[in-house]
From TrEMBL:
Transmembrane segments: none annotated. It comes from Gadus morhua (Atlantic cod). One of its GO terms (molecular function) is delta(3)-delta(2)-enoyl-CoA isomerase activity. Monomer. This is Peroxisomal bifunctional enzyme. The gene is ehhadh.
């Protein structure tokens, strides 16, 4: 689908037409090539403008076709089309509005001139799909911008705003007006002028000194950031080809690298993440409410109660989304400090007012309570909010694990109570768990989901249970990590295995960063440790299950992690970030093992991964079984956008499918046999049923889940 028309007597305007993002589907590719040929052969046509229909220039290749070889191979290939564009003997101008991304920018690079709207953005984001710019982009961009700037864009995949693109030389001109009209005028002025120098395929790459050393360093840098992803490294190799090989040889290299990436599990996983991120917007809840059947009331004013780290971040996120926010902190000294911190983050006032009085929340459409994790305190606040707030106002808690229903019961409006579980730092992290209880109304969920989108979050609707989805699944993962320490592993060994898998941080470094005292407080609330535990109770057993008191003992020593300068690792000072091994911890673990008659054994990285990840995945199946998450895709979105699960591994449930459900089951059976006192290792019945049904692909799991739901 490409529209072809002649304007101003001599300019062929080819308009890509494939809403919503004008992706280059087989039909578009067919239409584009036919149009280019028509323009080439029509003697009346003296120049060409390529644009996108109804706004965006082009969002790139059609990602939906990638999983389907027959679709991908039908119609002309992008490389062939772009060659025809570049070879055209008449000037071709790309008129870029909205965005030119991936194949869209590669098309623009094949044009002889690029006109952009001042609000447009351009980029080669293929790397985040586990790919490289495989339609000439890796070869043409370095020839236009030079190696450094091109490599940065290709390896990071970042979107570049029009102003920067102009400075880089990626766009030739900008306009604030109608881009197509401006491009048409320009195309006419270029008619008959020589084009050889405008064809990037004809140009050499601008020279670079110490080319070998430059790429050596680029590779090391990319490897350090890639966390096991292959695409960034392939991008470096392809750009090196552009810098060192003639164009056609470089194109051959690009093709070879692309073929390897395209068929890889990593590209499949990254593509899956692209769609799970967007699919989360089509939410459903355990009570049967759906995204397409309820309308959300817009929220324009909000109050945040409690201005600790979370409350401040939430205030910033809400203000940046354009809401007018009143930030409430009853402790005056905290209020002053918070006001300064929020203003710094917002670089000014940003529509936020401050108060020490809960009454200030009276006029808000939404209240987010973000005080510390103490049920009694939260209950008291919800009681007060119920009477202070205007009718219709939504009351949300930012608890990470406490019971939403209990808080709803403290109010006279349980249908307007929900959880908004932000992740720290709340103004940065993409994930938002929108937690509904059995009495939360569909309109309340709809409003929260809409607000999440406004804040630029990946919002996932989940049901209410301890820890919701993310933290519930994290618990068995953490538990296995503690057990591994008891059995002979070190925090360094466990973290190395997880970081090699692709997590930005291993479990113990993560725990030091977020603070060991948070989990300690939750365990005290749950009666697992603290004054409620009697002296006659065995230290390593709770409620008939294996329990590791290691985290509690660390807290009793005042080792809360980075904030105290000591945790699972040692830090130079409280608040410092660089983790060093701590000889104290080694002795502490040795003494602990001796005291409890535990024999340290050799533990390898494979066991670390299988015990920690399979336990987490197993809980994911339970979450599905219970209906707390609506789909495995939602669980994966939570883990990728909130817990650092590497995108190129798709998320825990996708990973389980990729490893093979039968293998995961076998692993869990093996470990449960070795550790029968650890119920999290006992394979859950949904996993067993899926394996018994022949391990269907992930998008078919819901059929097996359906007949199987427990009543929450
Ligand atoms: C030989 C191979 C050569 C080249 C390789 C490539 O070109 S790979 C593709 C490179 N392009 C991209 O990675 C861009 C991906 N898209 C985006 O980043 C955003 O969608 C975009 C374009 C910035 C628009 O964002 P916006 O927030 O406005 O919309 P949204 O993301 O919700 O997307 C709307 C619907 O369009 C679907 N979609 C987006 N891009 C593509 C695409 N390239 N192919 C197919 N479909 C695409 C997206 O899934 C949404 O669908 P929906 O059903 O509504 O969820």
């Amino acid at each position: 689908m490409a529209q072809y028309r002649i304007v101003s007597g001599s300019v062929a305007v080819i308009s890509i037409q494939n809403p919503p993002v004008n992706a280059l589907s087989a039909a578009v590719r067919e239409g584009l090539l036919l149009s280019v040929r028509a323009a080439a052969s029509d003697p009346l046509v003296r120049s060409v403008v390529i644009s996108g229909h109804n706004g965006p220039f082009c969002g790139g290749a059609d990602i939906k076709e990638f999983g389907n070889v027959s679709h991908l191979e039908s119609g002309p290939h992008l490389v062939e089309i772009f060659e025809s564009v570049e070879a055209l003997a008449k000037p071709v101008v790309a008129a870029i509005e909205g965005f030119a991304l991936g194949g869209g920018l590669e098309l623009a690079l094949a044009c002889h001139y690029r006109f952009g709207h001042s609000e447009a953005r351009v980029g080669l984001p293929e790397v985040s799909l586990g790919l490289l710019p495989g339609a000439g982009g890796s070869q043409r961009l370095p020839r236009l911008l030079g190696v450094r700037a091109a490599l940065d864009m290709i390896v990071t995949g970042r979107h570049v705003a029009a102003g920067e693109a102009l400075k880089l030389g990626l766009l030739d001109r900008l306009t604030d007006g109608n881009t197509v009209d401006a491009a048409v005028r320009f195309a006419q002025s270029a008619e008959g002028k020589p084009l050889d120098d405008r064809r990037l395929g004809n140009r050499p790459c601008p020279p670079l000194e110490n080319i070998d050393a430059f790429f050596e360093e680029a590779l090391i840098h990319a490897r350090g950031r890639a966390r096991g992803a292959a695409a960034p490294l392939a991008c470096v190799q392809a750009v090196r080809g552009a810098a060192t090989l003639p164009f056609l040889k470089g194109m051959e290299l690009e093709k070879r690298l692309m073929e390897t990436l395209m068929t890889s599990g990593q590209a499949q996983a990254s593509r899956y993440c692209f769609f799970t991120e967007r699919g989360a917007a089509r939410w459903t809840t355990p009570t049967g409410a759906r995204w397409d059947t309820c309308r959300a009331r817009p929220i324009s004013t909000a109050a945040v109660i409690g201005l600790g780290t979370m409350g401040r971040g939430i205030t910033v996120a809400l203000a940046r989304a354009g809401l007018s926010v009143v930030a409430v902190e009853t402790q005056e000294h905290q209020l002053d400090e918070a006001q300064r911190a929020v203003s710094r983050m917002l670089k000014g006032g940003g529509g936020v007012s401050y108060s020490a009085d809960l009454q200030a929340a009276a006029g808000a459409d939404l209240v987010v309570e973000a005080v510390f994790e103490d049920m009694a305190v939260k209950e008291e606040i919800f009681k007060q909010l119920s009477s202070v707030c205007k009718p219709g106002a939504l009351l949300a808690t930012n608890t990470s694990s406490l019971d939403i229903d209990r808080l709803a019961s403290c109010t006279l409006r349980p249908e307007q109570v929900l959880g908004l579980h932000f992740f720290a730092p709340a103004h940065v992290m993409r994930l938002l768990e929108v937690v509904s209880g059995p009495r939360t109304s569909p309109q309340t969920v709809a409003a929260a989901m809409q607000l999440g989108r406004r804040m630029g979050k990946v919002s996932v609707a989940v049901g209410n249970c301890p820890g919701f989805v993310g933290n519930r699944m994290l618990k068995p993962y953490l538990e296995q990590a503690y057990f591994l320490l008891e059995e002979g592993a070190s925090p360094e060994l466990v973290d190395a295995a997880l970081e090699e898998f692709g997590f930005p941080m291993g479990v113990f470094k993560m725990s030091d960063l977020s603070g060991l005292d948070i989990g300690w407080r939750v365990r005290k609330e749950e009666g697992l440790t603290g004054p409620g535990v009697t002296a006659d109770q065995p230290m390593r057993t709770r409620r008939g299950r294996r329990y590791s008191p290691l985290g509690d003992l660390m807290c009793e020593e005042g080792r809360y992690g980075q904030k105290t300068g000591r945790g699972w690792y040692l830090y130079d000072r409280p608040g410092a970030r660089v983790a060093r091994s701590d000889p104290w911890l080694r002795s502490f673990l040795e003494e602990y093992r001796e005291r409890h008659g535990l024999l340290a054994r050799r533990i390898d990285q494979q066991e670390v991964l299988e015990r920690c990840l399979y336990a987490l995945i197993n809980e994911g199946f339970r979450v599905l079984e219970d209906g707390v998450a609506a789909s495995p895709q939602n669980i994966d979105a939570i883990y990728v956008f909130g817990y650092g699960w590497p995108k190129h591994r798709g998320g825990p449930m996708f990973y389980a499918a990729q490893v093979g459900l039968a293998r995961v089951l076998e692993g869990l059976e093996k470990y449960h046999k070795a550790h029968p006192d650890s119920p999290h290792l006992q394979p859950c019945s949904l996993l067993r049923r899926l394996v018994a049904s022949g391990s269907p692909p992930i998008h078919k799991w819901s059929e097996v889940v359906k007949g199987h739901r427990s009543q929450l």
